[in-house]
Design brief:
By secondary structure, this protein is mostly helical. The chain has helices at about 5-25, 25-65, 70-125, 130-140, 140-175, 180-195, 195-235, 245-255, 260-275, 275-300, 310-360. The protein has a domain at about 210-360. The chain contains eleven helices and no strands. Helix 2 (about 25-65) crosses helix 3 (about 70-125) and helix 3 (about 70-125) packs across helix 4 (about 130-140). The radius of gyration is 27 Å and the shape is globular.
């Protein structure tokens, strides 16, 4: 038996053995990796923060006119100072207003529930839906208690997540400072671990991912900020309540491609319906105009065609990513799927080129 064939048999047998072992102890393996992920989550958050802050860092690095040995220090100082100022403004201005708005809405709903209950019971009294409406309105208190449980769980998870984000923020400083050394070290490990052909493919795919993902995410974040600011100005000028809460919801959900504006508009309209149905109508008209402006002017100007995919594939990536990973899956599904799409397209072109060469030789 040839040495190459023996090597393939050993590799295949090892692969099958570990695959069977994984399937037999799947829950144990998942639990093991989950505990590892929990332990290293501050570092994962740190990498994510460093990736975003690196854009600001590079902005200052290219523009600060100081000696080269001081350039990195000043750039990272200005970048993190800008982020800290942004966080302080959020904590002092935005978050208190959002919390106050949510508290007012909850208090108003508690007061309005008996009125709505009586109105619905009188409206459907004697109709075929009478029993259904009565059962529904009589169980509102239990619905509130049901909602309270996930809210408490969210609060607990949010506190743990905040701790990880704070540690990750500190760790991100070292990632930004040492990014060149870390990338070089990772490349060296990769180069000695896999064949050169695979190494080049992985480096090309990583470069493509960085370009598509970075440009798309930067564009969506900038677009979300612009839309949020315009929404805040418009809602304030119309004299609508809960301006900060509505603007934050519209801004955050606008990061999600295609479905984000609708996801953000629905709760805002419901909030205004509780306050005043006419105000909800005004907001709906304003929001529709804002989305037309965003789709035709803001979006194309800020993002352009960074993805290189058809609309059908983009919609699929949003739905698929959201079903697997929720909000973050919907946001990151498009750039991740775009990279996969580009890799597959490149492989198809290579295969077609090889077939063309073979046919030409024949």
């Amino acid at each position: 038996m040839k040495q190459g064939s023996l090597k393939k048999i050993i590799l295949t047998s090892t692969y099958v053995f570990f695959l069977v072992l994984l399937l037999l102890h799947f829950e144990t393996v998942i639990s093991f990796f989950s505990s590892i992920f929990t332990a290293v989550s501050p570092f994962i958050y740190g990498i994510c923060i460093a990736y975003v802050i690196n854009w600001i860092y590079m902005f200052f690095y290219r523009r600060i006119l100081v000696k080269e040995k001081h350039k990195k220090l000043f750039s990272i100082l200005f970048a993190y100072l800008l982020i800290i100022i942004f966080i302080v403004l959020m904590v002092m201005i935005v978050i208190p207003q959002v919390i106050n708005s949510i508290t007012n809405i909850v208090n108003k709903c508690i007061v309005m529930f008996p009125i709505w209950r009586e109105y619905l019971n009188n409206l459907f009294n004697g109709s075929p839906f009478d029993d259904t409406i009565t059962r529904f309105t009589s169980n509102w208190d239990s619905y509130l208690s049901t909602v309270a449980t996930p809210v408490l769980n969210f609060t607990k998870n949010f506190a743990v997540s905040m701790y990880n984000w704070i540690i990750g923020f500190i760790v991100s400083i070292y990632f930004v400072l040492e990014k060149e050394k870390l990338l070089s070290y990772c490349k060296r490990i990769l180069k000695v671990s896999i064949p050169e052909k695979w190494y080049n493919e992985i480096i090309d795919a990583s470069s493509s991912f960085h370009t598509v993902f970075g440009q798309f995410l930067k564009g969506k974040l900038l677009e979300a900020v612009i839309v949020g600011v315009i929404c805040f100005i418009g809602v304030t000028c119309m004299g609508l309540p809960y301006t900060m809460l509505i603007s934050v919801i519209i801004s955050i959900t606008n990061i999600i491609p295609f479905f984000g504006p609708i996801i953000g508009a629905v709760p805002c309209i419901i909030i205004l319906l509780v306050e005043n149905p006419l105000q909800a109508l005004y907001f709906t008209i304003f929001f529709s105009i804002l989305m037309v402006v965003d789709a035709n002017f803001i979006g194309p100007k800020v993002i352009g065609n960074k993805v290189g995919m058809s609309s059908l594939f983009m919609i699929f990536s949003v739905i698929f990513g959201g079903s697997l990973f929720g909000f973050f899956g919907m946001v990151l599904g498009v750039p991740v799927f775009a990279v996969i799409y580009n890799i597959i397209t490149r492989l198809v072109h290579k295969g077609e080129k090889k077939n063309t060469i073979k046919q030409a030789k024949k």
